[in-house]
């Protein structure tokens, strides 16, 4: 499996405090069957230099190799949707056109479609992160459908589907899956204790909803297409 959204790098955001915890997260992911983790630190107004992210990814991969952890980490970022897209070229997933985009926690802006269009105009293929946890989408899940097209996709969080954020968010996650609005299932992992980088529990639920082939695509084929900078199969 490929985990497309994980805060595994230490000291850059609200993820692990030190590299030892990053390694622990990678061990948890490996035990769960995850082979590749995309490191996606929060990118807010105070832009983290892309070189710092790539440097930490290289150092963490070396540490994982030394310790025999069979996981590869690649660079990305989770960018705040309200930032200027022209500043964000260094935060795409492994240098692809795909960019993980996070809207405000409190709501989905009325001009969300225009915001995403600006990203597309800049040459990005936005992936909307965890829409199922956004209050606007919880009230009206069809809002997400109005934002998606061939260049814009969505990722839900494994803990959401597993019920760890409550019944309402779990129900929304299931609805979005049934409506065919979800292209990726990712951990959004933050630590080795809580919000761990685990996909298998949620994947079992997704398989019951979608069937094995379509569900597995969310953690295998579709993330692989992102890493290859290839369009998603419709």
Number of strands: 9
Overall outline: globular
Structural class: alpha/beta
Question: Which whole number gives the mean pLDDT?
Answer: 98
Oligomeric form: single chain
Biggest β-sheet description = 6 strands, parallel
Work out the radius of gyration. Answer: 16 Å
CATH architecture name: Alpha-Beta Barrel
Parts with pLDDT < 50 across at least 5 consecutive residues? none
Percent in helix:
25-40%
Tell me the strand order in the biggest sheet. Answer: 3-5-6-7-8-9
Distance between the termini: 20 Å
Kindly provide the name of the CATH class: Alpha Beta
CATH superfamily: Metal-dependent hydrolases
The SSE order reads EHEEHEEEHEHHEHHEHHH
Tell me briefly what this model is:
The protein has 234 residues and is of the alpha/beta class. Helices cover 39% and strands 15% of the residues. It has a six-stranded parallel sheet. It has a three-stranded parallel sheet with strand order 1-2-4.
Please describe what this structure looks like.
This protein has 234 residues and is of the alpha/beta class. The chain has one domain (2-227): TIM Barrel (Alpha-Beta Barrel). The protein is 39% helix and 15% strand. The chain contains 10 helices and 9 strands. It has helices at 19-31, 50-66, 112-121, 135-139, 142-147, 158-161, 167-178, 200-210, 212-217, 221-227; strands at 2-6, 36-39, 42-43, 72-75, 78-80, 98-102, 125-129, 153-157, 184-186. It has a 6-stranded parallel β-sheet with strand order 3-5-6-7-8-9. The protein is globular. The two termini are 20 Å apart. The model has no long low-confidence stretch (mean pLDDT 98).
